[in-house]
Every structure is written in structure tokens, then in C-alpha cells.
């Protein structure tokens, strides 16, 4: 099989509201500024922060592909130069109930995407279906978001445990978000890594921390993407630092994507 360029990265968390969608949008923006072609698969089912920060309305959802015969290309919306978005809508939930013929059709149209992009970012949402959990677990890399809230810690641990035990994953990247200081972010990661290493066989790579910033919340609420709006803010500096760390990490893993081979297998 001819393999395209695209690598696939999933952004996950235990609990909701920890900043996955904003981080996905900002990582996409950073990568696109380096000339990469990025596709975001937006897993949010309600009001999507990906649509909010890019100030777009997507043309349709995977639901329209599954149930109403639209093609994947009909539902791709450009968000910014070199960034496209696909909304999954409630389609992700329905993937579990597809007939194998429908699933094959959907999978083959997703397979075509590997030639159009350099990276595909899957912004997952809480309440994931079995199939979308499977998609995330097939990703070339998984980036976990962790915040200082205790429930973020325990829920992420639970999520990683499922990925390790049921989906045989053994490697995750971690970003701490909404932390008070960089040092506190590093400490939070250390504590998390310690608990994981006590109970699971897993390797965690720390990408760094993003501090809590009230202004970021305000920008998002007024439909602005902080990295684009405030290129020299501390927030932008930290997002770029984490993104560069991710790039360094990727350089140590130059293998071809496994995602596409595995995806053909689940059709
Ligand atoms: N570093 C930060 N500082 C301040 N606010 C932040 C930061 N990161 C994210 N937020 C805010 O937190 C809220 C939740 O963010 P976001 O929607 O990205 O989370 P999510 O994990 O995608 O949520 P869901 O699980 O519901 O999809 C948003 O209002 C966002 O602007
Ligand atoms: Mg979200």
C-alpha cells in the first residue's frame, strides 16, 4: 500500500474542559506557520471551540457523510491558510452502529486524506464511543492534557489505563495546562508520572506546561485565537515552547505512520 505523508495525533484528556480544543487549534496554527498542511478532526458534539476560535461554521459533519451521502470533501472547511477542519458531529457515536459496508466506505474516504495533509490532529471529546477511542489509540502519537484539578488527574489516569490495558498503548505525551507556574506544571507531571509508573507499564514524555491566563479565556470568548491575536504574549511563548518540544520528540520517531495501515484493517 502506498502510504501518504500525514501523521495522526490525538489530543485526549480524562475530564472535559481542560483545554484540548484550544490546544489543538494553537498547535495546528503553529505547525501551519511552518508551512505544514493540517487537518483538524473536531470531536466536539455541541458548541465547538475549534469553530469558535477560528470563527468558522463548518459545512457539515461526518454524520452527513454517513447518513446523507455527502463526500468527505463536501464537509471540509478551511479555517485558516493550511488548516482545514472536519466536524465529526454526532457521527462519531454512530460509527459503532455502522454496517460493515458503510464503515468501509467511510474508512476509504478517510484514507484518501493521508495524501492531502502533513498532519491530522484529532481533537477528542469526552464521552467517546468505542470506535473513536479505537481511532485515538491507533494514532501515531497521543497528547494528553492534564490540569491541576484533582479530577483531571484521576480521570486521565483512568483513560491511560484503558488505553494501555484494552488498546495496548505504551507511550503518551503529556502537557500540563492552566498551571500557576512552569515549576508547578513540572511538579504536577512528576507526580502523575510517578503514579502511572507504580501501576502501569507505560512511557510518558513531558512536553511542558501552559499557564492559566485570564486573558486567554477572554480572547476565546470573543472568538479570537490567542496565538494569532497576541503573538508576543507569555501564553504564545509557552504554546510555542510546548509545540517545539513536540517537534523535537517527533524527530526521534521518524517511522512511517502506522495509522493508515491499521485503519484499512478496521474497515
Ligand atoms: N491556559 C489557559 N488559560 C486560561 N483559560 C484556558 C486555558 N486553556 C483553555 N482555557 C479555557 O478553558 C475553557 C475550556 O477549553 P476547551 O474548550 O479547549 O477545553 P476542552 O478540553 O476541549 O473541553 P471539552 O472536553 O468540553 O471539549 C475555554 O474557555 C478555554 O478558553
Ligand atoms: Mg473540546
Mean pLDDT: 89
Residue fraction in strands: 15-25%
The H/E string reads: EHEHHEEHHEHEHEHEHHHH
CATH-derived architecture: 3-Layer(aba) Sandwich
Helix fraction bin: 40-55%
Reported by name, the CATH topology is Rossmann fold
- Judged by helices, strands and strand pairing, the structural class is alpha/beta
Rounded to the nearest angstrom, the radius of gyration is 18 Å
Are there runs of 5+ residues with pLDDT below 50, and where? none
- How would you characterize the largest beta sheet? 8 strands, mixed
CATH level 1 class label? Alpha Beta
- Name the CATH homologous superfamily: P-loop containing nucleotide triphosphate hydrolases
The number of E-state strands comes to 8
Query: Could you say how many structural domains there are in total?
Result: 1
Attribute tags:
267 residues; alpha/beta; Rossmann fold; eight-stranded mixed β-sheet; 12 helices; binds adenosine-5'-triphosphate; binds magnesium ion
Describe the protein.
By secondary structure, this protein is of the alpha/beta class. It has a single domain, classed as Rossmann fold. It contains twelve helices and eight strands. β6 (141-146), α7 and β7 form a beta-alpha-beta unit. α5 (100-111) packs antiparallel against α12 (259-266). The chain is globular.
Amino acid at each position: 500500500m502506498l502510504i501518504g505523508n500525514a501523521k495522526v495525533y490525538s489530543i485526549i484528556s480524562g475530564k472535559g474542559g481542560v483545554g484540548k480544543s484550544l490546544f489543538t487549534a494553537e498547535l495546528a496554527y503553529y505547525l501551519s506557520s511552518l508551512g505544514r498542511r493540517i487537518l483538524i478532526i473536531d470531536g466536539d458534539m455541541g458548541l465547538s471551540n475549534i469553530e469558535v476560535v477560528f470563527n468558522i461554521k463548518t459545512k457539515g459533519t461526518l454524520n452527513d457523510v454517513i447518513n446523507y451521502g455527502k463526500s468527505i470533501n463536501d464537509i471540509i472547511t478551511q479555517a485558516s491558510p493550511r488548516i482545514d477542519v472536519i466536524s465529526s458531529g454526532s457521527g462519531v457515536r454512530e460509527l459503532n452502529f455502522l454496517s460493515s459496508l458503510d464503515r468501509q466506505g467511510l474508512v476509504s474516504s478517510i484514507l484518501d486524506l493521508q495524501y492531502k495533509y502533513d498532519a491530522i490532529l484529532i481533537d477528542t471529546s469526552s464521552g467517546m464511543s468505542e470506535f473513536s477511542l479505537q481511532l485515538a489509540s491507533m494514532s501515531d502519537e497521543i497528547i494528553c492534557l492534564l490540569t491541576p484539578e484533582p479530577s483531571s488527574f484521576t480521570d486521565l489516569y483512568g483513560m491511560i489505563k484503558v488505553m494501555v490495558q484494552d488498546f495496548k498503548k505504551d507511550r503518551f505525551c503529556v502537557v500540563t495546562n492552566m498551571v500557576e507556574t512552569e515549576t508547578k506544571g513540572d511538579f504536577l507531571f512528576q507526580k502523575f508520572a510517578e503514579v502511572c509508573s507504580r501501576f502501569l507499564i507505560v512511557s510518558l514524555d513531558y512536553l511542558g506546561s501552559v499557564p492559566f491566563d485570564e486573558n486567554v479565556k477572554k480572547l476565546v470568548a470573543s472568538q479570537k485565537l490567542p496565538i494569532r491575536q497576541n503573538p508576543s504574549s507569555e501564553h504564545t511563548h509557552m504554546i510555542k515552547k510546548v509545540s517545539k518540544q513536540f517537534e523535537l520528540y517527533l524527530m526521534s520517531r521518524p517511522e512511517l505512520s502506522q495509522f493508515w495501515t491499521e485503519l484499512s484493517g478496521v474497515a
